[in-house]
Amino acid sequence: MQESVLVYRNSRYLKLAVAAVVVAIVAYVVDSPVGEPNGGTWLGYTLGTIGALLILWLMWFGIRKRRYGPGNVQLEDWLSAHIYLGLALIIVATLHTGFQFGVNVHTLAYTLMMLVILSGVFGLYAYVRYPREMTENRRGASLDEMMQQIADLDRECSDVAMGLSDEINGIVHSSRENTRLGGGLLRQLSGRDPDCATTAALKRVQELATEIGRAEDADAPPDGRMQLRRLIVRLNRKVELLDRARKDIRFQALMRVWLLFHIPISFALLAALLAHVVSVFFYW
Amino acid sequence: MKLLVSYLTRKRSGDVAHRDVEVDDDVIQIGRGTDCQIYLHDPRIAILQAEIHERAGGMYLQDAESRDNLVVNGEVTAHAILKPGDKIELGPFELVVVDAPEGHDLAITVELVHPLGDEMEQLRARSGISLSDIAVGPRSLSWVLALVVFGLFLAWPVANYFTRSAAVTTGEAPKMVDQRQDRVWPLAADLAWDSGEISAPHKFIGDNCQVCHQTAFEMVTDEACSACHAGVEHHADAARFQFATLAEATCQSCHKEHGGSAAIIRSDQAFCADCHTGLEQAAPDAKLLNVADFGSDHPQFRPAIVVDSKTGKRQRMALDEANWPVERSNLKFPHKAHLKSDGLLVRGQTERRVLACADCHRPERGGVGMMAIEMERDCASCHELRFQANSPRVVPHADPAGVMIMLREFYAEMALRGGVEEADAAEVVRRRPGTELSEEDRLAALGWAEARAAQAAEYVFGKPVCGTCHTVSRAEQDGGPVWTVEPVVVVDRWMPKGQFDHESHKAVVCTDCHAAPTSEVSSDVLLPPIENCQQCHGGEQASARVPSSCIMCHLFHQPFLGPMHTPMAAAAADSG
Question: Could you give the C-alpha distances from A28 to A99, A218, A278, B254, B498, in angstroms and in order?
């Protein structure tokens, strides 16, 4: 579906964006202003106005996308136009600067704009690539279902461990109480949990099983070894499920983390843009 | 002992269900193990948690590991004597000792007061499975960032402007050096608004934006510039030429700050060529020729040549090969004779002296032009104005009246002293010094002196002395001949509209541009035509020549044209 956004309506918005960019480049090449090209020449003012209006229109998408009633223009149109005109803004804004950069609020606005666009490019990439991988990873089960299965396994492991030693019981209990999915932002994005209590539990139980096997303990009932094996099987299944669930969480996080940049930085951009425009005419 | 265990289950309705179990054993084991008499089915309980022994003192409860893991009636302990009413907390279980019914030694109720809870719920509670679970979301971040940027880069500079502008604009015009930043804030709040590098000469006020940007939302006024750059001159005679572009121009029209040192002065030739390639349309009576590019479209140099030495009238004449201008300066000076390669022999010297350009032509301080030739400094070492054979005495230069006076004084002194050794001199002056003179003698001596002075004057003002270089005219008058030396009118600025700097051409040999060694008369105009300069200098886009745009040699603001008309001045004039 996301691919279709890129070619929506026969790539109409791509063509529009390319046309706008070509016009801007030609105008820039042809123009010969007083002094060097910069934001304050006539072409600079024109490109700057176009850029500012573009930015406001691009941000309006955030409002439009939450209006769920029927509209004159489809949301797909809005999104396709948002992507291509957002990309065209790179050229328009850069030509507006006349390639003059410095340590000031003007270049700050430009930098924030580029960060917004770059984060948007990443978002587009995420939306094109990750849904398929996510579906493959899920294998038909939703995250909730996976969590339910994990919870069931927890119960089963508990039951099995009841009849085993205190140490194993403690390990299994700890793996039940301390295993978590995801966590903070970075942990969600990594798709792993290096401190996973279940993995530690499985490792320890396997060690104990090996020790017991090696000890050839006549006291240890064969029943106990069977229980241990059943426990290990369940713990393995739990680890597998945890991996899949964490991967799912990772995909979801990737598909949303870019918004954590895209939206706040665009508001910072709005403030910087306001400062940029006001300052240019304040000290005209 | 005989023990009655009641497992209690509290229902949601409030009712309590119980399951009773009878136990008969010496030691009552409490734990998770299936062989425990009090069986606590929960992973939080150890296989063997505690035991109850019957002792002499009573029922003795003891922790399986003899550690303080028991909580009896709220107190932590390792063992306790049980009596009815005791509450024992064992993990999530609460055991209460109740009155033992008939036939039993001990009765205990067991209740699970902290059930394990729903695994799924707990798992979800522990986990952070979506970005909504993390502390910071897009909305709060957006507010924070936007407010920080707004505060730092808009609110603060604007506030700074209003607190400082009072200090800058009231009071007398500050001295230039006082316009440096007078920091009230820790650092200038509006420095973030700086839109580009300030040109080098303005850097000392560059931190103080309000020196130029005096009023908010108003373009920089000409007054801001003329506070220091007062009386910048016009480009064209405002009375004769009324160009709209010049009349409406402000300083800012051409001079852009915040573009570094390169942008503050326009140097692109297109700026000039815009008007100077079609001057006849804008100003039909202008005498200037059109020009577009030094290398390919620049008229021949037209230096100002003196055409009438009496009035000193100058005329601009092109250095045209076919029609080379001639200067009428009233000076006779052949460069060729002076620059002889084997040198000159001067009276009184034994060695021949080879002259070079620098022997007479000295650069001005700064090296732009050449100092005017001064006879006393540059010529007199060879051309002594002597008039008497064995006397080193010279007459003053450029002072014909003074010459006469000196000659008379010279010979009068000789006559007065006596002892003149010339054989054909009058007797009276040849007398022995110290001889008394009668009145008649004195007059005779004076007559001799006068005669000799007149003779010397003829000599001096004639070809041998003054006439060597000057045009001298002799007029007979009652008191005797009067000589007039025609004034020498030599141009000091050949090309007044162009700025040629000798200093920057120090590496060039004089004779590469000035054809002096072959010049035999001083009416030769020894300037190079433009082709000579074009050997090295090209237009603005030249790559194989020195790129030279108009302002390399010409000024926009012409000196002596009066202050440039500005809209402000005009408005003031209109209203005043």
Answer: 11, 90, 24, 20, 35
Closest CA to B496 of B285, B299, B230, B314: B314
pLDDT, tens digit, 9 for 90 and up, residues A69-82: 877 888 888 899 99
In this prediction, residue B396 has a pLDDT band, given cuts at 50, 70 and 90, of very high
Give residue B565's pLDDT band: very low, low, confident or very high (50, 70, 90). low
CA–CA dist B190, B212 (Å, integer): 13
User: Is the pLDDT higher at B561 or at A145?
Assistant: A145
Nearest residue on chain B to A148, judged by CA atoms? B120
The interface pTM score, or ipTM, of the predicted complex is: 0.87
Closest CA to A264 of B152, B134, B137: B137
What residues of B are in contact with residue A264 (Cβ under 8 Å)? Answer: 138, 141-142, 144-146
Phi/psi class of residue A271: alpha, beta or left (left: φ > 0; alpha: ψ in -120 to 50)?
A: alpha
3-state SS, residue B563:
strand
CB contact under 8 A, B130 and A257: no
Q: Please indicate whether, in this complex, the C-beta atoms of A272 and B129 are within 8 angstroms of each other.
A: no
| A93–chain B nearest CA distance, Å | 16
What CA–CA distance (Å, rounded) separates B355 from B361? 11
Contact of B403 with B470, CB cutoff 8 Å: no
Q: pLDDT digit string (tens) for A157-193?
A: 988 888 888 888 889 989 998 999 988 889 999 999 9
Question: CA–CA separation, A35 vs B199, rounded Å?
Answer: 13
Q: Do A182 and B196 touch (CB under 8 A)?
A: no
Rounded CA separation A56/B284 (Å): 53
Residue pairs spanning A and B at CB distance below 8 A: 182
